[in-house]
Amino acid sequence: MKLAVLAYEKEKISEGQLARFLRTDRVNARLLVDELSSNYQEQDNKFVNRGVNFAQEIVGR
Q1: Which terminus of the chain is more exposed, N or C, with fewer CB under 10 A?
Q2: What are phi and psi of 50, to 5 degrees?
Q3: SS (H, E, C) the chain
């Protein structure tokens, strides 16, 4: 999931591809990107997790 979001943010995959990777629709994919982006910050060319739970289920959100 994290790699898909990073690829989307770097414009390596489209919004439709992101939604397929995340097994959701485009609206929920966008919401998830916003949520994950706000939980990560770049520090010394690395992304540091600020508390997102990647184990949470995203299907049926």
Answers
A1: C
A2: -105, 25
A3: CHHHHHHHHCCCCCHHHHHHHHCCCHHHHHHHHHHHHHCEEEECCEEEECCCCCCCCCCCC
